Amino acid sequence: KKIHRLLHSGQRSPEQVIQELGKVAPIRLVCQLMDYPRSSYYAWLHREPRIDRELLAQVDLVRRIHQSHRGSCGSRKMARELTNRGLPVGRYRARTLMRRAGVRARQHRRHKYHSLGPQALTAPNVLERQFNPEAPNQVWAGDITYIPTQQGWLYLAIVVDLFARRIVGWAHSHEGDAWLAVRALRGALKQRRPNGRLLFHSDQGRQYTSHAMAEILRDNGITQSMSRKGNCWDNAVVERVFATLKGEWLYSKYPTRQEAAADIEQFVDWYNHRRLHSANGLVPPALCEEQVA
C-alpha cells in the first residue's frame, strides 16, 4: 500500500520511492516488490549531480558585480545592478545569490569629526540642513578628509552638488591647508560654470574660515554657509560621501600618496557614473542630472 501511495503521489520518481522505503526494508526486497532492476537504482544513486548552469552564470555575475564595486553592493543595490544587466530580480533573490556567491557588502566605518583649528571668518548656517535643492548648481557643500599611506597622510578636499550628490570638484595634497579647499572649489567652478545664485556650505574648519576661501567666494558671488561648531550632521551629505569612500572603496593603506591619489580619481568616476545612489532612486548622480537636463 505504501509503495502504491508513493508511486501515485505524482511527486516522486521510482528511484526516490525505493530510497525512501530502503530506510525500513532491504533495497533488494523493495526492488523485487516494485519489479525494478536493482542495478538501475544504484546507477541512479551514484549519478553525477546535475549542474544548474543558469544558476552558476547568475552567481558568477554577482561575483563580478561585487568585485567591480569593491564589495560595496548590498542586496538592494545588487538587485538593481542585476536588473540593469538583464536579470530582473528582487532584493531577496539578490540576497540569496549573494549568499551562494559567498559575498557580502562591506561595512561602513564611522567617520569621526575633528576640529581643524582656530576660526577666522565664520558664516551663519544658511543651509539649515535643507539638503535637497530643486536643480543643479544651487547648493554645493565641501569638506576635507585624510587618507593614510606609508608616506604619511594624503589630504582630500571635495565639493558636492547637493541636487544629485555629484562630486563636482576635488583636490588632494600632502598638506591639508586652505589652498587645498580653494583648489577643490576652483575645480568645481571651472567644470560647472554656475551662472545663478549659489550657496556653498562647509564646516568651520580653518580651511573654510580662511581669507583665501572668503575671497574666492566673494569674487564669484557665492553665498557662504557654515555648520554649527562641532556639528557634523549639518554637513551630512559630504560626510556620507566620505563614508562611502572609506567604507566601500579605499584599501586599508597605500604604499605611496601617488597611488592613493590615483585611486581617488577612479573613485570619483565610479561614484558619479556607476554607484547607485539611494537619494536618487538608485540612479548614479551623473545620470540623475542628465534626466532633468
TrEMBL record:
Pfam families: HTH_21 (PF13276), rve (PF00665), rve_2 (PF13333)
GO molecular function terms attached to this record: nucleic acid binding
Entry-linked Gene3D superfamilies: Ribonuclease H-like superfamily/Ribonuclease H
GO biological process terms on file: DNA integration
Residue ranges of every copy of the Integrase catalytic domain listed in the record: 132-292
Name of the protein this chain belongs to: IS3 family transposase
PROSITE patterns, alphabetized: INTEGRASE (PS50994)
